[in-house]
Each structure stands twice: as structure tokens, then as C-alpha cells.
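MODEL INPUT / OUTPUT PAIR
PAIR INDEX: 1
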Amino acid sequence: MNLTKLSKIVSHALRHEPWLYELELDNQGWVNIEDLISALQGQQSEWKDLNQADIVKMINTSSKQRHEVKNNRIRALYGHSLPGKLQKRKAVPPEQLFHGTAPSMVSRIMETGLRPMSRQYVHLSIDTVMANKVGSRKAKDPLILLINAKEAHESGVVFYAGNDAVWLADTVPPEFIAIYTAS
């Protein structure tokens, strides 16, 4: 079974267009895992033998921790583009976070801050390696931005824990953003 392909279709179903799979997410993004499996089996013959163990293996082998399973339910942890905001738990962020972006976007970001654009939240990484991976989807040689998360939080910017590697925010004003330079 192609776990990468499975991760992509599960992400699409849980993050972007659950209605295409006839899934109904609750206000925290959860859906019964059997409903998801049935929906995927009905979409493509490739998934006719899909089972819960396959989903759990996909989650456990993924380096990006996009999904979680709990009490026979599954949800995407971040990256939603659905209408209506999924509720996240507010949390105190680490001192610094990072954001990878295309060099062409930096002047705009430094002027207006980070905004979620087509997603529900701004995505921030805990380290430069992850920020570079994310940024490389936008540009061949992304720039890494340093977010002074501690100061932003103390000034009232709300942060949410996405997972061990990703933090979320509604927005990040420009005064808490700098271009990262390795020391």
C-alpha cells in the first residue's frame, strides 16, 4: 500500500473537501474512522482493502504528523481550508518559531505580517529544517523568517499547538518577524 498516496487522500478528505467523501466533521475536525475508510473504499478500488491498521501505520510512519486517531475517530491536525474555523486549544509557544516562504513574499510579509491566506491559521515551524521543507514548496530557495513567539504571545498574539513540529496562529504582526540568519 502506498502510504504517501493514502496520506494525501486522507488529508484532502479531512482538511479540504470532506463533502466530496460524504463526511461530516465535528467542530474540532473529528470523524469516525470507519466512516472515512468506507468513504475512501467507495471512491477508488485502490482502497477496497483499506482498514484501520493501514491508517494507523500511515500516521505512525509519517514525518509530518498530519493526523491523529483517538477513540476510533480521526482528524487532521492542521492545514484546513474548510469554511468555518475548527477550534484549537490556545497554548504558550516556544520562544522562537520559524516560517519558510518564497523570497518574493518577504517584503509584503514584513509590511503586513503573516496571515493565513487560504488556510484557517498561519503555520509556524519549531525549527529551521521544517520551515525550509515547508518553504521549499513555495520556492526553490526559500527564505526562513524568525518569529519572536514569546514576545508576540506576551503582546496578545494567540498561538495554538498543532503538533510537535507545527504551531498555529491567527496572524503574526510584522513587529515580531525578522529574516533568519544562521549564526
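PAIR INDEX: 2
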Amino acid sequence: MEMLLGDDFSKLQNASILLLGVGGVGSFCLDCLVRSGIKDITIVDFDTFDETNQNRQMWSELHEGEVKVEALLQHYPELKIINIRIDEQWVWDFDFEPYDLVLDAIDDTKAKLALAQKCYKKLISSFGSAKRLDPTKVQVSDIWKSYGDRFGAKIRYELKKRRFSKKYKVIFSSEEAQVKEKGSFMGVTATFGLVMCAEAIKTIKEKKEADV
């Protein structure tokens, strides 16, 4: 990464990242961030690893029944961890100021809306990655240019109701859902996470040295 980024690599090493959710999307994003040289990462999640996570979540087969953030600390010892459920009230109460970027890999609608309202300037948010099979349909755009995702449509609708019109980056798939149930294919969920990591690196790289 240092060979690839040159002088910009120091920006990655000095960046502070808050990653919300370490499931199918967040776990791959986390691994990518760490392997790319970002050292100051805080992860927030409340869940435990379950057998049903093993088709899409990194390290899940090794830690069934364990608290996710604590288990992941064994693989990424420099992590800072917060074991708590992310809901709307937590978002309003939490101090996002110390972080350069907030990466949203959660699926709680009200919490996602609060995140947009509170920290859109530093937010990269993931929409629905389940029910899909084609990773080539994963895209990045601002919230108002995203399409093809019913979950994303709901977020846009609710933001308009709240008279929110600011822009922030979202990752979404234009592929129509293949099933009604929440079946997931790692090829898509992991792509969401890797694209989120790539967008984070791109954003950090574009920041002025004094800002990071």
C-alpha cells in the first residue's frame, strides 16, 4: 500500500475510523482496512457469532457463541471495541467528532437516518446486500442518485420526510432482490464491504494533510 499510495500512505496511518457493524459487510470492510495499513479503528456491534453467520462473516466459524467485537480483537489486536446495540438514541448521544470517517454497515433504519442527519459530512453508508447474486451490480453514489434497492428507497423517503437534503456516499446494488427471504451470498456482501473500504481509502487520500 505504501508503494501504491506513496506519500499519501501516511494519511491512512494517521486516520481514525469508526466502523458500525461487523457482519457480512462490516467484517470484510474491517479486514480490508487493517490490511491496508489503517491502525486507528473503532468497531461497534452488540451481537454474537452464530452458525448462520458462517456463509458470509469473517472468522465466524472459529468463534460461534462469542461476542463479535471481543472475538475480532483476537485477530486485530490494535482495534478499539464498543460492545453495544446501535440504535437511534445511541447515535444521537455518541460523539463522532474524534473520527475522520464513519462507516455504516448496520441495518437499523432509524439509526441509519440519525447517522445521516448527524454526521453526513464524514459518512459512508451501506444499503441492502442480501438477496442478491451479482457483485458486478454493486455501485457507489450519493444518496440521492442511488436506485434499485427498496431499503435505500425507504431511507430516501424517510430523509425527505425529515427535510434532509444533504449528500453523502452510499454503497448499493442495482440488482433486483432474487428472493423475499434474507438469504445472502458472500460474493455480494463481501463486495459491499470491500467497496466500502476502498471508498474510505479514497476519501482519506483526497483529504488535505492538515485535515487528517
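PAIR 2 NOTE: The mean pLDDT is 94.
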